[in-house]
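Same chain as my last thread, 149 residues:
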Amino acid sequence: MPIKSGGFSRKSKTSSEVPSSSMADIAFLLLIFFMVSTVFQKDRDRPIEWPEAEATQKIDEKIKNILNIWVERNGDIFINDRPYAMTDVASTIGPLYAASDRALVISIRSDREVRYSTIDLLQQQLVAAGVMRVVFATELEQRMARERR
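reply #2:
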């Protein structure tokens, strides 16, 4: 009796679908890779003598909304750990302040021995940039921050 081509079929058929069972594993591994390889930048402390204050107030802002301007004893100005000339402060901070919808707080961290004329010029640059929220960091504030840690 001849066998008719009927009852037999191949078991392995190629599938055009991408297996989705391991997609979660791949996504999780990518997430871990990016978390491990990301570097968070911290502001470097400058060697300054903090000005003294009898009273201070804590700034209730997120760290991303605080921009530190360091003024060293010789009048050098650093914004985000990069040196800037006094004439470049307004053109640098103005767009940052506008992009933050005026939520940016400028924290002036100056040495106790900085000349008043330097701080006055810095304030004039901040006014020219349209900045409204400026605070001065003091030694008492730094001591309170260290005690909280």
